[in-house]
């Protein structure tokens, strides 16, 4: 039942009255049509062109339709904003009851989800469906529809959480956002130093480390990089320093990309979503994203 502005209500009323008047006029024209006029045979010596009145049942059908329309508009909402005689007794009560039931079920389900822990939510198919919808609307642009990320945006389906993969850490990342800065070491290390460190890092990630070949790079790494990424390259979620010993590269894991990261530095920003998403939406996302942890 639309609550139409006066202009559109007037349009609806005018169209309705015009339709009924036309229907009545059509019925009268049919009923009082002239007697048939006979003409000469025109085709095939048997077909005669003439003017025969429309059957009387057309007239009564039109009148019946008009009467039905008037009765319908009297008892049901169909004439502008007029709600009809049955409105309060039937439709309004039914609508209010139906809306109240929907609201009750909706808020009851919300309360149930809000009180559930992360593990319980992960086994709730409806909750995970809501989480996927929220992810598609708010996160997929950067992290891709399947959450596997893309260049410059991390894969969220593996266990390589740069800022930590506990529910609390993921919640913080979504709600408050993150800002990571990898300083540029090109000037400090020089071209040869960048090359040595890049080859050493890649050798660890690819498990191709050779003592004799990568000693120089290892020494520079321990001197310049271990403070954030740790001596074993396992990374440090406190600084947002990623694990360099796995294959989860954000900016590319080929030698050229690693050298560029070292020489030019990197910066990444995850915007805060606490003002865009509700606490329940963030909680559902955390449950969905951490289901593989």
TrEMBL record:
Its main location: membrane. Residues 126-205, 212-293 form the Cytochrome c domain. Binds 2 heme C groups per subunit. InterPro entries: CcoP_N, CcoP_N_sf, Cyt_c-like_dom, Cyt_c-like_dom_sf, Cyt_C_IC, Cyt_c_oxidase_cbb3_su3, Cytochrome_c_Oxidase_Subunit. GO terms for biological process: proton transmembrane transport. Heme c 2 binds at residues 182, 225, 228-229. One of its GO terms (cellular component) is plasma membrane. Its cofactor is heme c. Pathway: Energy metabolism; oxidative phosphorylation. GO terms for molecular function: electron transfer activity; heme binding; iron ion binding; oxidoreductase activity. Pfam families: Cytochrome_CBB3, FixP_N. Heme c 1 binds at residues 139, 142-143, 270. The chain crosses the membrane at residues 7-33, 57-76. It is found in: Cell inner membrane. Keywords: Cell inner membrane, Cell membrane, Electron transport, Heme, Hydrogen ion transport, Ion transport, Iron, Membrane, Metal-binding, Oxidoreductase, Repeat, Respiratory chain, Transmembrane, Transmembrane helix, Transport. C-type cytochrome. Part of the cbb3-type cytochrome c oxidase complex. Component of the cbb3-type cytochrome c oxidase. Belongs to the CcoP / FixP family. This is Cbb3-type cytochrome c oxidase subunit. The gene is ccoP2.
